[in-house]
Design a protein that fits this description.
0% strand; globular
């Protein structure tokens, strides 16, 4: 495993979640965030950030 710059895993998780939502918009956001946290080894704070990020993004539509 390589050492990534701070925040890179979070950026990758956002990209991954966004791609999954494009592929299958019916997938529950919470499920995608949970999967991303495991896949990218994110902290609970990162998970909270993702929830806030996507809830703000959804309410802006």
């Amino acid at each position: 495993m390589s050492i990534l710059p701070e925040g890179e895993q979070l950026r990758r998780a956002i990209r991954w979640i966004s791609d999954r939502r494009l592929d299958n918009p019916q997938t529950a956001l919470l499920k995608l965030i949970e999967e991303a946290c495991l896949k990218f080894d994110l902290s609970p704070n990162d998970a909270e950030f993702l929830m806030n990020f996507y809830s703000k993004k959804s309410s802006a539509k």
